[in-house]
Amino acid sequence: MLEVDSIAMTFGGVTALDGVSFSVGEGEVVGVIGPNGSGKSTLINVMSGFYRPTGGEVRLGGTVISGRSPEAIRRAGMARTFQNLRLVEEMTVLDNTLAGMYLVATGGRWLTPSWMAEVAGAVGARRRAREMRASAQDALGKVGLGDKLAFTVGALSYADQKRLELARAIALRPRVLVLDEPTAGMSVEDADTLVRMVASLVETGAQALSLFLVEHRLELVLEVSDRVVVMDGGRLVADGEPASVAADPRVRSIYVGGE
Amino acid sequence: MTSLTAIRTLPRRASGAVGVAVPLAIAAGFLIPLVVTSPFQLQIYTLAVLNAAAVAPLVLSLGYTGLLNLSHGTFYGLGAYTTAILVTDHGWPFEAAALAAAVVAGLGGGLLSLASARVRGDYFVLVSLGLTIAMAQLLANLPDLTRGREGFFGIPQLDLFGLSFSEPVTGFYLCLALLAVLYLFLHRVISGFLGRTMLVVRYDDVAARSMGIRPLAVRATAMVVGSALVGVAGSFLVATVQFISPADFGFDASFMLSLYVIIGGMASLPGAVAVAVVFTLLNEQFRGISDYSVGLVGLAVLVAVFIRGKVLRDLFHSWRAHQEGRATDA
Q1: B54, B137, B221, B330: least surrounded by Cβ within 10 Å?
Q2: Residue range B120-153, pLDDT digits in tens
Q3: Interface test with B, best of A52, A90, A152, A164 (most B CBs within 10 A)
Q4: Pick the CATH number of B3-329 from 1.10.3470, 1.10.287, 3.40.50, 1.20.1410
Q5: Which of A52, A91, A110, A147 to mutate to test the interface with B (most CBs of B within 10 A)?
Q6: Taking the CB of residue B31, how many other CB atoms lie within 10 A of it?
């Protein structure tokens, strides 16, 4: 599904990523761990098109996506969240979720005949809008925001804002969902519930998606992931089943020595 | 919990009330000619309605996509001059000239939006400002086309589908109908997916792109549609006043139009329309205060900034919290 092939990224002489390769299979949950500054967020920014890698390539479903714009990569089927929230505070929870959904329905095209149909209030357009709303509510229900649809984002707690970012990405029905520390700032119980919910979306095949999860809570990652990759200093230092990664002495040294 | 929800949704409900009141006021406006019989008074109302129709489309680019567009008056002027030239010198019917005005102004808006791909924020304001000043100079210095600095005289009496702009009551109704149509159209545009995508672009380019939204495409759409619509308002202005001059579409005009949107609450169509009507009426009705109108606008901007900065809302919140605290104690 997603192949990352010897990706390198340097910023003016500083090497942030150095020959990182791994793959995420269809319906697979891949967890990523590593200390701060190990290149996890840089990797996500490369995968989602916000950075152009200085070497290597990223393929999604066999098509090269590295070097394309974030919008094009979104169209190709990836959706991501941000470690630091990127929500529109003035808009409601529901509107934030709906904002990108129309473009899913049009295959990413911006101006289409349905544009005028919606403005004119045509019957078909209204039905589509209702369906979209229902699907947004469904995504919000999954993350536990079903009763806060009309709240403006500014009125939400930090944990709820993290949930909203997740719902916004799920609602885009991605083939690959990329989550950058989705539970930061949440209580342990809330974080567990949320990550298990997302992992179950993949396992139950409720959506044909693969999950790429950056999360610094080791136990949680080991529990929900099919495979775990470990990063340190811009390199991939381990890649395997959770049990074998947990037993890897290098991983132990990073975690014991690092945090 | 319920009262907490009530507080949190307060700004939305307050703007909801304005959102109901303004369309009702527009509908009620159709009764004005029954009450106001003096042609001079009616002319003032016509100008107020026209100003509102000119401001409304600016809500798209300035209010919703956050593009600091200081050229709206220029596109108003492009529409007006296109109409004046076509009907006076080329004998076009008003309807065709109004369409041409929409195309010319829309193209102008599209060109300016391309600049937003290159420059952002403060720098875009400078580009926009430059365009506004350059266009006013151009209109003043092309006498063969625009009759130059003294303005465009000799515009014939115009009519739309047989309804004459020169008859005060009919003219008022035509302009009010334009406002109603623009309001309805813009309301439909911003309350659907277009409005949502525009707001995302206004606040966060990165978030927008991660959702597959191309910021430039969204800004260009807002600029083209907004400029084309104000171009049509320019046509109606020409038909109503039958005289325009480059000074009408200089920096002052664009600046005032932008201020109306800012005072109205940025992304608020009813707010911008209400502010435009009220300020025009105040200015025209009470000629005495027009000396102070600049100060008045400045004061209104301050108030708007306080509201936008949530100073008033926070005050209200702490007052409510205080009240609730007392209620719990009792």
Answers
A1: B330
A2: 777 888 889 889 999 988 888 887 888 878 888 8
A3: A90
A4: 1.10.3470
A5: A110
A6: 9
